Amino acid sequence: MRKRSDIDFFLILGLISSVYVLLIAFLVIADIRYTTLQDFRLALQKPEIQHAFWLTLKTCTVSAFLSIWIGTPLAYLLARHRFRGDWLIDTIVDIPIVLPPLVLGLSLLILFHLPINGWELENWFRDDLGFPVTYRWPAVVLSQFAVACAFAIRTMRVTFDQIDRRPEDVARTLGCTRLQAFLQIALPQAIRGETAAFTIAWARALGEFGPILVFAGATRFRTEVLSTTVFLELSIGNLEAAVAVSLLMVAMAMVILMILRLVGLGVRG
């Protein structure tokens, strides 16, 4: 009776769980069946799509590195220390995750491009630093980073929460400073989490669309990335090319997720 009960239990759970799994699988199958290998090859041979592909690789990588570089210290502080206002910082970090993408893009546009009290941040970047931001490739990186960093922070905070802090305390009693304990004890133990956070940030940057469209635009051979390529191809009625680029993004996402499983989280057994 117990064995029969277990079978029924797992059967019910499997049926319920399969609804979402089958939905995603059927979405990918529908894309594959709609396009052909010829359509896929023709789409990838377009110079503008090739440019968008390489720009996507570059900007996603830069955004992921920035997310790790900035997100790791913040995640460590939130995980290891309690200070006045930490709840507010914790809430602010989550804003890009729950905020509608178009709102985030509009906020970036207002901050960098529109004058606030007679002062425009874009002018400071252009005149003092020597390069413009809005509707250029730096705007693509900022749009991706604004969201990807939040996911990197959450991943790294979970990582530091799971790491025992006693080795750091012991190292400090033996003469290490907090910085030395962080660099020599905490970070080496968090290497898997770092890899996972980088991978998640890269994948999130790959799928970013709304903020890029508003803040960076979708100018071909300048700010067009793969997500905006799908939009541009749909806008001119080239559905075959849009589906082909979508499949390319699916393949890239699957590779990233496999890396996350194999390297970031480790292979058991």
From TrEMBL:
Domain (ABC transmembrane type-1) spans: 53-260
Q: Which CDD domains match?
A: TM_PBP2 (cd06261)
Asked if the keyword Cell inner membrane belongs to this entry, the reply reads no
Q: Cross-referenced InterPro entries, in alphabetical order?
A: MetI-like, MetI-like_sf, Sulph_transpt2
Main localization category:
membrane
What UniProt keywords are attached to this protein's entry?
Answer: Membrane, Sulfate transport, Transmembrane, Transmembrane helix, Transport
Membrane topology annotation: Multi-pass membrane protein
Which residues are listed as membrane-spanning?
9-32, 52-79, 91-114, 134-153, 201-221, 241-263
- GO CC, alphabetical: plasma membrane
> This protein is called what?
Sulfate transport system permease protein CysW
Q: Which organism is it from?
A: Thalassoglobus neptunius
